[in-house]
Amino acid sequence: MTDTPHRQTRLWHDRADAWLAEGRIDGRAWIGGARVAAADGQTFACHSPIDGRLLTQVARGQREDIDRAVAAARRSFDDGRWARKAPAVRKRILQRWAELITQHKDELALLETLDMGKPIQYSLSVDVPAAARCIAWYAEAIDKVYDEIAPTPANALALIQREPVGVVGAIVPWNYPMIMAAWKLGPALAMGNSVVLKPSEKSPLTAMRLAELAAKAGLPEGVLNVVPGYGHEAGEALALHPDVDALGFTGSTRVGRKMLEYAGRSNLKRVFNELGGKSAFVVFDDVDDPVRAGRTVAQALFFNQGESCNAPSRLLVHEAVADAVIDAALAEVPKHQPADPLSPATVMGALVDEGQLRSVMGHIDSGIQQGARLLAGGRQARADSGGHYVEPTVFDHVQPDMRIAQEEIFGPVLSILRFKDEAEAIALANGTDYGLQASVWSRHLDRAHRVARALKAGTVHVNQYDEDDITVPFGGVKQSGNGRDKSLHALDKYTELKTTWIRVG
Q: Known catalytic residue: 309?
């Protein structure tokens, strides 16, 4: 019998029900190569944003747990059980890990959807494959990255070598738990470091399961440790820890500032912040296809419920083509109504928790109060489900000083600002504290190139949005941070350069 969408939905629900009935979701930390409870036995409840059901109790990691994890990482680094393995051996272990992630894709995808609320079709087709590709790609990079010999006089030999930095702390957000973890773990482990990972308390479950799979692949104990917990407890303890040599953080700009403060208060560890965004999607009057532009901005924004730091939440459109672009964006709204995340047909799921729902609704209320014109949405959805859903929302005639034009909402809320000429478009696009991504739509390459150069953003897309690959860096400028994930450039964050000068003869 061919699976119908209804039957597939039932199968996902049945599997989830069985997991919960059997208590199969393990919320314990992963320290020193084993699942462990928090040192003081404390836990916190992990509820699904889909329907509010309790998934499990999660270990509430605090300072003592971070101390245990950092000590395990330090031992594993200092004795060389990973750092001094031959590159080919590290490569094979990480490749095997990537293979295991792929083999367990159904399990990981269901865990991710239950924990975070995103549609199961995207957990399966995007999140799990992207995490596996990231680990596999950095595995391949291990024996492709060479050290250097400086151009010295004939009586000297100067070697410039990359060495692992040591113990790396990684703190990742709740919106793409597996992908964000892989972006940190891939390059850090490829370079021979040991890692302590602190996942978000809002979606911690797949991180511990990834660590188990890494151990099964052959990663030595202590090399990867995962401590769930709250940011003000486990996260702060990790960032302040004097035996952590570098810290990779992805999250809000507010917390990113704290990471820099913690580094200054402790051991001046290097901090790489990948922070928020308020990305501008700029459509000029010479756009080749205004309908495609409008469709693209809506699809990109509503993806992952708008819970993406690079979401194109500001549509800047030339007044001559505004109607066509906006009509095309509005045509996407009925297609993105929130629905059951465990249905393969669903394209927009639940917000991660009640707090995020309140935050998004607060921004919607502020848009209405400040005079923006609400074209679509604006209400909570599926309230009787027990979960946290909001309608895709579109505001027109947004002014640049409004909250919805300046603040990162992290929800499916599109703000439309109109402009008259190129100079005004650039000024509007650059008129926020953020600089993560942007997009330029024009049929003329000279304009697209000129405007792309003028935009303060880490990535500028031209006549598309969010086309991506592991080979290119991801990160921003201004208050979007200084970190770069992905590509070979990410390796620089997790290595030290050492010069060895040898006098010859």
A: yes
